[in-house]
Amino acid sequence: MIELHFAPTPNSMKIVIMLEEIGLPYQILHYDIFRGDQLAPDYALIHPNRKLPAIVDTKPALDEEPLPIFESGAILQYLAEKSGKLLAQAGAERWRTLSWLTWQVASIGPMGGQASHFTRYAPDGNEYAIERYCKELKRLLLVLDHRLQDAPFVAGTSYSIADIAIWPARFWASLMGTEPYDLPAVARWLESIGSRPAVQRALGHPDCKVPQSYVGLRQRLSKEQWSNMFGEKMHNGAARRILP
């Protein structure tokens, strides 16, 4: 059994898609990040950075104790290794997959996150930041389109954890006013992955519904929500050290 510590965000949805693809049993444990559920002291033992998602493998292959794994890229690689699916064991395809997985966690993921933050949550008057991150996000989508002009999937001929990691970029693209369907290769790829039965099951999962507070432009957070997400409570939570 995989325990998935989950908030209805693109990063968490990657893991739901992966679990549906590989067929491992899992349980979703919900966190309301605006309410500050991720700042609960015990959660630091699962994810020291107090972000979502994280998993706990209650039956790891080599250890008797439940094993927590955090950061979506590491979780995808762990589940691929555990199941023997969606990551080649050796050779060029494996390294292409890991290269594009790293590109997601180092490039389009952070840029999309910053573009989302300044467009949706930051106070007015951040025109430079909005332009900076939105332009970089558009550039990265063009990089993706160029790659997909040469191959059906980002790592080559086979669907992989790299595709699962990058596919939620569609949410950021639409949010930023960059329609990915203006990029022909990206559009083809989005539709191909979106039609997969496992992806459809993940998107339709009753525990994965997205509340209105997680979508839309120019969200206005309460002081409590801001503190939990970006302010004092979030920073104070990181300052507390929880010993196992």
Annotate the secondary structure layout.
Blueprint: E1 2-6, H1 10-22, E2 26-30, E3 54-57, E4 67-70, H2 72-83, H3 92-120, H4 127-148, H5 161-166, H6 169-175, H7 184-194, H8 197-203, H9 223-229, H10 232-239
Parallel strand pairs: 1-2
Antiparallel strand pairs: 1-3, 3-4
Helix pairs in contact: 1-2, 1-8, 3-4, 3-6, 4-7
Query: In the CATH scheme, what's the topology name of the largest domain?
Result: Glutaredoxin
Helix content: 40-55%
> What is the end-to-end distance?
22 Å
* Strand element count: 4
Largest beta sheet, briefly?
Answer: 4 strands, mixed
- Order of strands across the widest beta sheet? 2-1-3-4
Give the low-pLDDT segments.
none
Structural class: alpha+beta
Count of DSSP H/I helices: 10
Description of the structure:
The longest helix is centred in the middle third of the chain and has 29 residues, at 92-120. Strands 2-1-3-4 form a 4-stranded mixed beta sheet, covered by helices on one side. The mean pLDDT is 89. With 244 residues, it is of the alpha+beta class. Helix 1 (10-22) crosses helix 8. It starts with a strand and ends in a 5-residue tail after the last helix. The protein folds into 2 domains: 2-86 and 216-239, Glutaredoxin, CATH 3.40.30.10; 92-199, Glutathione S-transferase Yfyf (Class Pi), Chain A, domain 2, CATH 1.20.1050.10. The protein has helices at residues 10-22, 72-83, 92-120, 127-148, 161-166, 169-175, 184-194, 197-203, 223-229, 232-239; strands spanning 2-6, 26-30, 54-57, 67-70. The protein has 10 helices and 4 strands.
